[in-house]
Amino acid sequence: MNGWNNSEYVTALIISNLVVLIILYFSIRQQRVARLLMFLLFMWAGITNWYVATHNPEAYLQYADLAFIAWYRDFINGWFRNNALWFIGLIATGQLAIAISMLLKGWMFRTGALGGMIFLLAITPLGVGAGFPFPLIGALAFYLLYRRPFVDYLWRSEYTFRPKRSKLSAQA
Fold first, then answer.
1. For the range 132-137, what are the long-range contacts, defined as Cβ-Cβ under 8 Å and sequence gap of 24 or more?
2. pTM to 2 decimals?
3. b/e burial code for range 60-94 (CB count within 10 A of at least 16 → b)
4. What is the pLDDT of residues 44-62, one digit of tens each?
5. Which tens digit of pLDDT belongs to each residue from 99-108?
6. How far is CA 120 from CA 37, 54, 56, in A?
7. Closest C-alpha among 8, 40, 9, 11 to residue 23
8. How far is residue 133's CA from residue 54's CA, in Å, rounded to a whole number?
């Protein structure tokens, strides 16, 4: 089963790709909005994955059938099957860290954006299970955010008005 014959997968694939195209648009036009959307997306994913990992970790085994690379499928059906709880917990924690980094600045933001790129590229072989081509478009959006020369806190304006000091106030 590759997922294309399952209407739930296809619906999720369409919605996720529309969302990531919106994020890509904002990563080009308005970095703050893209960062906020990435924060919301990765916060939701991290919380959801922690919940599912602690309540039904076997649910992730179905993704093996969706993978289009054999060793990925073998990994899920092998080692991952016996270690799903802590491995998904680790992934969820990483997703939450990426989310929080979108609110930060400097090296913390850039590290999170780099982590987001790596994570999305790593799940690409899940095909429909990862909403393909969602991970590639999302990685591109993270790259565009990463390469911006000015990276400040999400809530702080890049164009904050700072009145110039007059010569009189400078002398005082």
1. 132/13, 133/17, 134/13, 134/16, 134/17, 134/20, 137/17, 137/20, 137/21, 137/24
2. 0.85
3. beebbebbeeeebbeebeeebeeebeeebeebbeb
4. 999 999 999 999 989 999 9
5. 999 999 889 9
6. 15, 22, 23
7. 40
8. 28
